[in-house]
Specification:
50% of the residues lie in helices and 0% in strands. With 235 residues, the protein is an all-alpha fold. It is built from 13 helices and no strands. Pfam families: TrcR (PF06242). It comes from Rhizobium mayense. This is DUF1013 domain-containing protein.
């Protein structure tokens, strides 16, 4: 992997101020346009940026600068780093230590049961297995199916909780919304509840059927009998 120059403009400012390199040499080394380097030299560009010494950062040597100053056609080459950072590995099936490989079928069974939305490729990335193994466990055709016990891959140390959550979230985005049958709906539709017939026996309707004349006649008869009862009490 080619080394990248740190802070190209700041490095160009330092080279303009501290060396006799040509604009073309500085532009080629800093990946800038020669006119931009000229504007930096004239003070028209990169104002307020502090120059960065490429010798102090280990990106250029004094000998390399001296050779370029002596030969205008010489192209500056960035120095090899003293410490090499390993390149990031390409994404692929996760490596599983030998001591934990016997737990992979249990983890696959757990993922298949608890997260059926996960694709085989996602399960393979999480626990470092093959699609054929996943299919065998899913179809119960694995040679050790009778002895398998579903176990959380995070607890087994086969993957991290963050990786598992990310894969589940990715699978959930492409999954269609569940239907009412899948959710096991128990509520009745509003159309059915609105049409329910409720019968109430209202007292006011019964009161309308009562004859008012009969009620007043009964009251008059009660008034007429009350004085006779009082007279009997006097004698």
């Amino acid at each position: 992997m080619a080394q990248q120059l740190l802070m190209p403009k700041a490095t160009a400012i330092w080279l303009v101020d501290n060396t006799a390199l040509s604009f073309d040499q500085i532009a080629q080394f800093c990946k800038l346009h020669p006119l931009e380097v000229k504007a930096i030299a004239d003070g028209e560009a990169a104002q307020g940026i502090k120059g960065l010494d490429p010798i102090a950062t280990g990106q250029l040597s004094r000998d390399e600068i001296a050779r370029a100053e002596a030969n205008p056609n010489h192209k500056l080459k960035i120095s090899e780093p003293k410490v090499r950072v390993p390149e990031s590995k390409r994404r692929g099936p996760r490596y599983t230590p030998v001591s934990k490989r016997q737990d992979r079928p249990n983890a696959i069974l757990w993922l298949v049961r608890n997260h059926p939305e996960l694709k085989d490729a996602q399960i393979s990335r999480l626990v470092g297995t093959t699609k054929s193994t996943i299919e065998q466990i899913r179809d119960r055709t694995h040679w050790n199916s009778t002895n398998l016990t579903p176990m959380d891959p995070v607890t087994l140390g086969l993957c991290s909780q963050i990786d598992l959550d990310m894969e589940v979230e990715k699978a959930a985005k492409g999954r269609p919304l569940p239907t009412a049958a899948e959710l096991g709906a128990t509520l009745q539709p509003a159309q059915e509840t609105e049409k329910l017939g409720f019968s109430y026996d209202r007292d006011d309707e019964k009161e309308k059927e009562i004859d008012a004349d009969a009620v007043f006649a009964k009251l008059k008869s009660l008034k007429s009998t009350t004085p006779d009862e009082d007279d009997d009490d006097r004698y």
